[in-house]
Design goal:
The chain is α+β, with helices and mostly antiparallel strands. It has a single domain, classed as Thiol Ester Dehydrase, Chain A, CATH 3.10.129. The chain is about 30% helix and about 35% strand. It has five helices and twelve strands. A hairpin with a 5-residue loop joins strand 4 and strand 5.
Length: about 240
């Protein structure tokens, strides 16, 4: 389903900076500069790792993803199931980047996995400006406009069933907890299928390098986001 965004080397997966950037912009609508191929602190989008886990191990009714470290370009990754059934994503040195816990029924139906993956990634890619800007404005803080850094901490969801559904995700509640120069944003979402409630979930982000909210600086960042979006979408 997402084979154009990684390459296989034996049992390992490798994601180039160009592949990761195309996924971020083309699938997630995410123009965070940290996913630009030439970014000094480039990292592979967490949502791409999320889709690869579902592609390999299926979609379970209850899943929790914890992102432990940022993945650099061309890092050989191993996706493995450990003894207790958890899933770990590690590199050649044993460094773990992602852990996944799961329970309940699991489906390996490609159409269901693809639909849920794309639906969640489209929702998740709207972190900024759609969800984070109003939260930061409300609390009078923002990331450093010269070095904006928003890190994917974790996400999880619970589904009532896995068969015959056309998922749609909507934001149900958002909150921001500020602690000094860092803040945790919690985005809670509801999952529907044809208007019928099918599940709930949440996503946690960490915003670093906080400073006082500057409306002028924020508007410039938002304008740059939409400039990049238009440039990417224009043939």
């Amino acid at each position: 389903m997402f084979k154009e965004f990684y390459s296989q080397r034996g049992e390992q997966v490798m994601i180039s900076a160009e592949q990761a950037s195309r996924f971020a912009k083309g699938v997630a609508g995410d123009y965070n500069p940290i996913h630009n191929p030439d970014a000094r602190r480039f990292c592979v989008p967490g949502d791409l790792l999320f889709t690869l886990v579902l592609e390999r191990f299926g979609l379970s009714r209850h899943m929790q993803f914890h992102f432990l470290a940022m993945v650099g370009a061309d890092t050989p990754l191993t996706f493995s199931e450990v003894e207790n059934g958890d899933i770990h994503v590690t590199d050649d040195n044993g460094k773990c980047y992602l852990t996944v816990t799961r329970s309940g029924e699991t489906t390996r139906d490609n159409s269901a996995i693809d639909a849920f993956s794309r639906c969640y990634v489209a929702f998740s890619g709207k972190n900024f400006p759609h969800y984070l800007k109003p939260l930061m404005e409300e609390h009078g803080v923002m990331f450093n406009p010269k070095r904006p850094l928003v890190i994917y901490d974790s996400m999880g969801f619970s589904l009532e069933r896995l068969d015959g559904f056309s998922p749609n995700l909507t934001l149900s509640r958002s909150s921001l907890k500020v602690n000094g120069k860092r803040a945790e944003a919690l985005l809670e979402f509801s999952i529907h299928s044809n208007g019928i409630p099918m599940g709930i979930g949440s996503k946690k982000l960490v915003v670093s390098g906080l400073c006082d909210y500057d409306a002028v600086a924020m508007e410039a960042i938002v304008a740059e986001f939409y400039r990049l979006k238009a440039a990417y979408e224009t043939p």
